Amino acid sequence: MNHFSQNIKLLRKRKNRTQDEVAIALDMKRSTLSGYENEVAQPTIKALLAFSKYFGIAVDTLLKVDLNTLQESQLRQLERGYDVYISGNQIRVLATTVDAQNRDNIELVPEKAQAGYTGGYADPDYIKVLPAFNLPFLSREKKYRTFQISGDSMLPIPDGAYVTGEYVQNWLQIKNGKPYIFLTLNDGIVFKMAENKIEADGVVVLHSLNSLYQPYEVKVSEIREVWKFIHYISNEFPEANKPKDDVLKAVEELRKEVQVIQTRLAID
């Protein structure tokens, strides 16, 4: 099947694994693995997904890219989780919906639908049942989607706010210190500030605005979608921010206390 047989053999050897070791890890017979490597058997979809997870490389890469032709530096990038397909210009096709004028809708993913979205984000039948709307002030040339966020990790953007993002096709263009919505395998939908370390380490470091939350790394192989923050909508009215008034009040109270102490010392 294309380059699959040679690719899994190459990757296995680079990991210094025997056929027995890989077969055990993938819960299959050694003879089955040998058949795949020698092109006498065709893998099932389940087997393809198992190999993809084991090696941390996209199924499309295993099938379509001849890894034997890559340079050593490129192979090391692959093994660190940086897939040659992450830019999305060849394989990632976004499921979307359009209005009566054949213009892209903005689909809404409310909090209660997020568990389903994690599994159905690529399924057109799932996407078309999501609520959809349009905003006239956004570009018709770009794709947007709105997600309801939960938690306090991105305060002052409040829990329950609706965050709209612009679809990011090329993840290498993720900008440091900018907010993005990520769809990840382990955490589902997360809204964070990004630190792009894809080229160097094959990861994106996610930071919260709330300092109580520690940053953490996500491998690009665990990311499924990226959306650049555009705006948010919330029914919560922000509290007045008066740090200067609070400081002045505290200074005035301290001044009065000092005056009282000075008066007592003078009397004594």
Written overview of the protein:
The relative contact order is 0.10. This protein has helices at 4-14, 19-25, 30-37, 45-55, 59-64, 72-79, 114-120, 124-127, 198-201, 243-267; strands at residues 106-109, 132-133, 144-148, 162-167, 179-184, 188-197, 203-207, 216-219, 223-233. The protein is elongated. A hairpin with a 3-residue loop joins strand 5 and strand 6 (188-197). It is built from 10 helices and 9 strands. It is α+β, with helices and mostly antiparallel strands and 268 residues long. The protein folds into 2 domains: 4-79, Orthogonal Bundle (434 Repressor (Amino-terminal Domain)), CATH 1.10.260.40; 106-233, Umud Fragment, subunit A (Ribbon), CATH 2.10.109.10. The chain has a 9-stranded mixed β-sheet with strand order 2-1-3-4-9-5-6-7-8. Residues 86-91 have low confidence and may be disordered. Helix content is 34%, strand content 20%.
What is the fold-level CATH name, i.e. the topology of the largest domain? Umud Fragment, subunit A
First-residue to last-residue Cα separation: 97 Å
Mean pLDDT: 86
Number of helices: 10
Helix content: 25-40%
Instruction: Decide which structural class fits the backbone.
Output: alpha+beta
Corresponding CATH superfamily of the largest domain:
Umud Fragment, subunit A
What is the H/E order? HHHHHHEHHEEEEEHEEEH
Question: What is the CATH-assigned architecture of the largest domain?
Answer: Ribbon
